[in-house]
Write a structure and sequence with these properties.
The structure is a homodimer.
Chain A lengths: L5 H20 L2 H30 L11 H11 L8 H8 L3 H10 L7 H35 L1 H6 L2 H11 L2 H5 L3 H5 L4 H10 L13 H5 L5 H22 L4 H19 L2
Helix pairs in contact in A: 2-3, 2-6, 2-8, 3-6, 4-5, 6-8, 13-14
């Protein structure tokens, strides 16, 4: 065997290191984590822009109440310069069954019309709100596909966006799969847990799992128990997704449904 | 005189109230306040989106350092799918004098290319970053024109964006013009002032005025004095903008320059 020079050795080791970093990033989970973090950032950002847009345009049409970000932005783009010119048909295409209400509000509005210049600015704000909503739905579609493929068991039990957020909190699927149920239950509640440990405030009962639909529908005192049930089954599901790659989630889902029924039964007087 | 019925009286008073609200909003200052608040929100939002974009795309090109949000977004849009195909000329058009550096980095990069699907998502993120930058510059142009017209004296002394922010903090030009210099000095430092009054922490020396270019160029211990000089002259300038409508700011500017020189002279040993 010919002996390597220092230069050759250095080149060989650098190449190996590069290749291993490259392949570590090749896993889908990094993309999912980036996607969910972007999704959550855009959700926040979209709300901020909407607040500004609504406050600004309300100088010109304070009576308008649409309760939908996209509809509001579309209204500003289409009718913001001269709302009185909007016909019932045009309004119908944008605000749907609120058309006649809005039509009446336009007649009695105390708002003037913005100047050409100011309107141009408000309009671009509305356009960027729409484009953010579009980006959000594209990331959503990407997340749905990639997360369901990468963690089929977990996504069978909980919403794929909650699953992606928990993956992001855990750092990787491998770490997720080696966590005890108690840690999974509190993923996303790190701040509250730290406060509890340091200052003795109440211990948190749930983190990201609070976003589950079941939580909103349940009494407050049942939520900790529900989070625990999910965490226990997610613990098993994550091991299947990470290691055995077998689909066992239909069985786990039945277990969850049974446990939830029991919790509700006990809660009744 | 025919006596009004209750109905008629109600209608007359409502119409008068509507008209007075409508005319109160007719002033330019409300638009300026909306515009500067939107500008500041978009600045924040653009940074958030950029952070996400940079972190996500760095999975595929970790060596890239561009230090400019718009250039980074353009790079992702044009070369993000297949960076190796970028010619020197094409790179030159996007990243300018960094082209040869980036060209080399592309050859030695450890990053792979994103999948078609993932790239589609990253690209929309980059596009919305660009659209936010565009909105920001449009609001900026609108602000420059309307603020300089509405507060010519104040805008002669300080940057129009700082002026707009102070107007927003004050609530209206009338309120601004009736504030003592000490209050003007601390506009934008309300939180710190409250902390000072309630908990006895250090009293703030400047609020929004901290954004003045002079502040960044001066020693820390001179900044309170500089803020005071500006606040005193802004106090006079705002009265001219609100009430007398005469242009006196060139004289005030000379006063400021003289005072700043003295402060600097005294600071020297």
């Amino acid at each position: 065997l010919k002996k390597e020079t220092v230069e050759e050795k250095r080149a060989r080791l650098m190449a190996a290191a590069k290749a291993s970093i490259s392949s570590a990033y090749a896993s889908d989970e990094h993309s999912i984590i980036q996607a969910i973090n972007s999704y959550l950032a855009i959700e926040k950002v979209g709300n901020l822009i909407y607040e500004r847009l609504e406050e600004w345009y309300s100088m010109y049409f304070p009576e308008l109440r649409l309760n939908n970000q996209a509809t509001f932005a579309k209204f500003v783009i289409q009718f913001g310069k001269n709302k009185k010119a909007a016909t019932m048909e045009e309004l119908n295409a944008v605000v749907g069954d609120k058309a006649s209400e809005v039509f009446r509000q336009i007649r009695s509005s105390i708002g003037r019309e913005p100047s050409e210049e100011e309107y141009g600015t408000i309009r671009t704000l509305a356009e960027s709100e729409l484009s953010l909503i579009d980006v959000q739905s594209r990331i959503d579609a990407y997340l749905e596909k990639s997360t369901k493929k990468f963690m089929p068991n977990i996504c069978y039990l909980i919403d794929y966006k909650i699953a992606a957020e928990m993956l992001s909190r855990a750092g990787s699927l491998n770490r997720f799969a080696t966590m005890p149920a108690g840690t999974i239950q509190l993923l996303g509640a790190e701040k509250a847990l730290f406060k509890h440990l340091k200052y003795g405030s109440k211990s948190p009962k749930h983190g990201t799992l609070f976003k589950l639909q079941e939580m909103a529908l349940s009494n407050k005192h049942m939520r900790g128990k529900i989070a625990r049930v999910y965490a226990t089954k997610l613990c098993t599901a994550s091991k299947a997704d990470a290691f055995t790659k077998r689909f066992i989630a239909d069985k786990l889902k039945q277990d969850i449904d049974r446990s939830l029924k029991e919790i509700k039964k006990k809660a009744q007087p």
